[in-house]
């Protein structure tokens, strides 16, 4: 009976650890944009974080070691988030703010 209780307690403790384990997304940000992955790194997301009228974008690459870069735009403005379609695992991402007639303000690449 004691072994059954200990086994049950151990099982519950392991289940609690499994459920509470955090998911670590890849993420990057600038003054006006926040880019991150979700869904076990199969989706890219970009959020406009500044009330400045500038569109934002996430640039990301899937399926390491491929270097192809995809771009996800968010043009609706402050507070809005765009989400990519499901695809291969994203291994690097960066956030950029588009500023007319200037170079884009981009973060460094964050990778898995």
How does this structure look, described?
The chain is α+β, with helices and mostly antiparallel strands and 112 residues long. 17% of the residues lie in helices and 38% in strands. The chain is built from one helix and nine strands. Strands 4, 5, 7, 8 and 9 form a five-stranded antiparallel β-sheet that branches. The protein has a four-stranded antiparallel β-sheet with strand order 1-2-3-6, with no helix packed on it. Keywords: Signal. Residues 1-25 form the signal peptide.
Summarize the structure.
The protein is of the alpha+beta class and 112 residues long.
Provide the fold topology.
Elements: H1 2-20, E1 27-29, E2 33-38, E3 43-48, E4 56-62, E5 70-74, E6 81-83, E7 90-97, E8 105-106, E9 110-111
Antiparallel strand pairs: 1-2, 2-3, 3-6, 4-5, 4-7, 7-8, 7-9
């Amino acid at each position: 009976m004691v072994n059954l209780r200990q086994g049950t307690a151990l099982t519950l403790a392991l289940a609690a650890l499994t459920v509470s384990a955090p998911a670590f997304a890849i993420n990057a940000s600038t003054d006006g944009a926040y880019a991150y992955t979700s869904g076990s790194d199969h989706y890219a997301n970009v959020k406009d974080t500044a009330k400045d009228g500038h569109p934002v974008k996430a640039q990301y690459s899937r399926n390491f070691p491929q270097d192809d870069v995809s771009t996800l735009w968010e043009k609706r403005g402050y507070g809005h988030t765009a989400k990519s379609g499901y695809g291969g695992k994203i291994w690097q991402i960066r956030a950029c703010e588009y500023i007319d007639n200037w170079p884009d303000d981009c973060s460094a690449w964050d990778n898995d």
